[in-house]
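Morning F.,

Quick status update on the modeling queue. The single chain you submitted on Monday has been processed. Sequence for confirmation:
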Amino acid sequence: MKTEMSAEGDDLSDKRGLAAGLLGLSGLIAGSTTLEQLLTEVATFTVAAVPSADGAGVTMLECGRPDTLAASDEFVRDVDSIQYRIGEGPCISAAAGGTTVMSGSLGDDGAWPTFGPQAAHLGVHSAISLPLVLKEEVVGALNVYAHAPDAFDGSSRRIGELFAGPAAVAIHNARILEAVQRESTRLQAALSSRATIDHAVGIIMSRSGISADEAFIRLRIMSQHGHVKLTVVAAKLVEQAVRRARSRPARPSIPPESRS
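Structure tokens below.
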């Protein structure tokens, strides 16, 4: 009876942990923080969700290689950096196979003869790596670690996999939003540069009485001779024109009755 009650208590605790992690995940708002900060929060919620976890990391993959990394604790960053540096470890295996990878004795695990002992030397003996899968494509991985040997069991794995699904969606959406925002910033900068160049062309036209095409060619020659970007040359030209205009003495206003 005591064993059954203990098992029921553990199961209830596991469910509460998963619920807390999912609740935190649902509260994340893409765009309110940087992608790295959002991934760090996902890692923190992963620790809350997976039983016996001491730390977790999130890795986003780009062309099959680690791209953006985040961790709930510094020791996780240390462990993850080892496997990415040597190209061996549970995250590498989980991403390559698209399946969950688990170990309770990293130091003796023959699957990663180089990574395992180094992780154990840092005091990390248990790991679960959960692939983040969207539309049958592995876009990243959740790496969950514990200091104790054999810290994770079937329940830890099952809960981790339940958490990984919505985590993948949240991370993917945040990544798309970041890409859109980055492209929007690039386009705004391009439009601003185009406007500055157009203003500079107009200034050259007014001073020289040449056509727009000829003025642009002259601006480009100035850029090439000075080994300076075209937008920089244009901006300096506009700035000089504005400064000259401001330095000119204001013309005295003529009363209306004097104009007649």
